[in-house]
Amino acid sequence: MKQRKTIATNIIIAICFGVWVFIQLFPSDSTITNAILIGAFYKPFVLAGEFWRLLTAGFVHVHLWHLAMNMMALLSLGKIFEPLLGMKRYLMILIPSIVVGSLFVLTSPENSFVVGLSGGIYGLLAAYVTLILRTGGWKMPPVRAALINMLFINLLLNFLPNISVHAHLGGFVTGLMMYGIITTDKAEVHKRVNYGVALVGLIGVLCFISWQNRTIPTRSRYLGTDLNVLQILNDGPLHKYSYFLAERLDVVYGLDDGFVRVLGKE
């Protein structure tokens, strides 16, 4: 029997676990600070130019239960889709779903701290639902039962504390579009183009709304957290970068060289 390879899935699980260990063990004031240091989605830092956080947030988990639930969901869906689609097309669903899920969060006018692979998982879930409907698998009781259980568990996650429904929605919509792009027959080029245009249009709208909501309200500013991260960067090999980031954060918050002055006094 041919082995069903899940190389990308296994690597992602290993990365997520390694990041979680770092967050638990790195000596700082809190795990939140550690999560931001290693790539969590934190709106002020994204607005300051660290756009890579839209992706890296997917590999960051603070709590063990969150990590365990997401990894079990990823493993279940990865066993289906990575062998079926191949590593490249599998990641073409997972990665954009993480990024666009984060963009959905960025549109919020409030400050946001978000971690977890849920956006990517919801993208794979959308692809799974589409596959079942296309192939008529929903007519088979075992497949239908498995689908219902998977949907129930993932919907239940939305009601847990500190879970971003926005990221789930963004990931699900992106998964639908990306699955359409990569599985549509080559002869039906117009369908692929339609999916691609729809996704690009969605991203454009999200970027516009995010720009409109780029101001961080005073009530949701956590300047102490920002300063902790900057101080750790300043004390390490990223000393110069800490000043660059401090300058960008001063612009984001509309401060008069506030963070820059504090770092300069150290």
Provide structural commentary.
Residues 49-180 form the Peptidase S54 rhomboid domain. InterPro entries: Peptidase_S54_rhomboid_dom (IPR022764), Rhomboid-like_sf (IPR035952), Rhomboid_protease_S54 (IPR050925). The chain crosses the membrane at residues 7-26, 51-78, 90-107, 113-131, 166-182, 194-211. It is a single chain. This protein is an all-alpha fold and 266 residues long. It has two domains: 7-212, Rhomboid-like (Rhomboid-like fold), CATH 1.20.1540.10; 221-263, no CATH class. It is 72% helix and 2% strand. The chain has 13 helices and two strands, in the order H-H-E-H-H-H-H-E-H-H-H-H-H-H-H. It has helices at residues 7-25, 31-38, 43-47, 53-56, 64-85, 87-106, 118-135, 141-157, 165-183, 189-212, 223-235, 239-253, 258-264, and strands spanning 41-42, 113-114. Strands 1-2 form a two-stranded antiparallel ribbon. Helix 6 (87-106) packs across helix 7. The model has no long low-confidence stretch (mean pLDDT 88).
Summarize the model shown.
Helix content is 72%, strand content 2%. With 266 residues, the protein is an all-alpha fold. The model has no long low-confidence stretch (mean pLDDT 88).
Write the topology of this structure.
Layout: H1 7-25, H2 31-38, E1 41-42, H3 43-47, H4 53-56, H5 64-85, H6 87-106, E2 113-114, H7 118-135, H8 141-157, H9 165-183, H10 189-212, H11 223-235, H12 239-253, H13 258-264
Antiparallel strand pairs: 1-2
InterPro entries: Peptidase_S54_rhomboid_dom, Rhomboid-like_sf, Rhomboid_protease_S54
Transmembrane segments: 7-26, 51-78, 90-107, 113-131, 166-182, 194-211
Membrane topology: Multi-pass membrane protein
